[in-house]
Amino acid sequence: MAEEPSNGELGRLIAGLQDTLTARFGELNTRLDKMVSLDVYTIQTTHVEQRLAQLQADIQRCAAEVDQLEDDFEAYQRDEAKRREAERQARLYQLIVPVAICIISSVIAVWAVVAK
After folding, report:
1. Which segments of the chain have a pLDDT < 50?
2. The predicted structure's pLDDT at residue 60
3. Taking CA 74 as the corner, what is the angle to CA 68 and CA 75, rounded to the nearest 5 degrees?
4. Residues 6+ apart with CB under 8 A from 13
5. Which one-letter DSSP state was computed for residue 3?
6. What residues have CB less than 8 Å from 44, skipping those under 6 apart?
7. How many CB atoms lie within 10 A of CB 64?
8. What's the rounded Cα separation, in Å, for the pair 95 and 103?
9. Is the whole model's pTM more than 0.70, yes or no?
10. CB-hemisphere CA count at 13 Å for 93?
């Protein structure tokens, strides 16, 4: 029986194991204190997901507004080009009609003089 430990040695080994377990459970408790509870994690995750969804909706709304502004600007440019073309034609006609009347009057006057 010399190979088996005595009762005193077993008691000391058991006490050492208890001290080790107590120290390890203490470490585990400090680690668990640093961790976030499941409720808090769930609430935080839900909030982050809601915020991301809101930001995605805002991004889509902004993209739609940018597209609308681009379409409006293109329509404005087309309308402005049409207006300029109409104004150019109006000025051209305002110039051509009096010149044409002047030339016709001059031709009629010359013809009247020559015809006498």
Report:
1. none
2. 97
3. 90
4. 5
5. S
6. 36
7. 10
8. 12
9. no
10. 6
Are the CB atoms for 46 and 38 separated by under 8 Å?
no
Structure tokens at 33: 């204190």
At residue 2, the pLDDT reads 60
Backbone dihedral angles phi then psi of residue 90, each to the nearest 5 degrees: -65, -40
Evaluate the CA torsion angle 62, 68, 72, 77 in order and state its sign. Answer: positive
Q: How many distinct helices (H) and strands (E) make up the chain?
A: 2, 0
Cα–Cα distance, 84 to 97 (Å, whole number): 20
**DSSP code for 37:** P
Contact 13, 5 (CB under 8 A): yes
pLDDT digits (tens, 9 = 90+) for 57-86: 999 999 999 999 999 999 999 999 999 999
